[in-house]
Amino acid sequence: MRIATYNVNGIGGRLPILLKWLDLAEPDIVALQELKAPQEKFPEKEIRDAGYDAIWHGQSRWNGVALLSRVGEIHETRRGLPGDPLDEESRYIEAAVGGILIAGLYLPNGNPWPGPKFDYKLQWMARLDAHLTSLFDLDAPVVACGDYNVIPTDLDVYKPANWTKDALFSPEAKAAYQRYLDQGWTDAIRHLHPDERIYSFWAYWRRSFERNAGIRIDHLLLNRPATKRLKAAGVDMRPRGWDKSSDHAPAWIELADGPAPARQMRAPSAR
Where is this site: Transition state stabilizer (predicted)? Predict the structure, then answer.
C-alpha cells in the first residue's frame, strides 16, 4: 500500500502537475493540502477520470484538504478537527480506506511569531494532540499525514540559523510535535532514515531547490499497527522540479499488505 501526502499549493492552477504525478507515481492513497478552492470548485471529474475516488473539505482562497483513493471506497469518519466548534478553517479530514484510517491535515503556519496566528497554531496543535490520543490505540493501522508546518530538528533544515525567527522552527512548535512522538507515534521518514537530510519543501527564491536548500515539514505519523507494516518511506522530489509546480514535494510511505514484500514506488528519489 502506497500512501502519500502532498501540499499542492492550489489545486486549480496545479491540477496538471497533480495528474501527471498521480500517473507517474501511482500512489494508492493520497492526502492533499492547501487546495485553495471552495467545495464546489474541487476538480472531481478530473480526479475520478484519473482513477481515484475522492472526498474533500474545501475553502475559498485558503486551506482545503482532500483524500484520494484508487484501492477502495473512502469512508469518511471526520471533517474538521474537534476541540473548537468556532474554528471554520478547512484543515482536517479523516477516513477509513482499505482497513487503514487516514487522517489528512494542514497545520497552521503560525507566522508572524509571536502573535495571534502563532497562538492559533499552538492551540490547533494541542487539539490535534488530544485527537491523536484517541486514535493511537486503535487496532487498525492509523496514518496521520500532511503538512505539519513544523521543522522537527536541525537535521530537517538546510541552514538552521536562517529559521530561528520562524514559527515553523520555534521551540514551542517543535515541543508540540515532540509530544506526538512521545505518545508513541512514529515519524515514518525519520524512523527509516535516522541520519539522512531529507526535505519536502523548497522556497521558490534563490534557487533553493537546485541547491537542495530545503526543509522537512510534510510528515507521516504512524501508530503501532501501521509501524509494524512500514517497509519504505521518502520524498518524491520529481514534481518539485517541474515547471509551475508546488513548492512542496510528495512525502510517501509503503505499508506491507501482509507477509509479501511491499512494492517500491517507482524512482522516488529521481527529479
Answer: 149
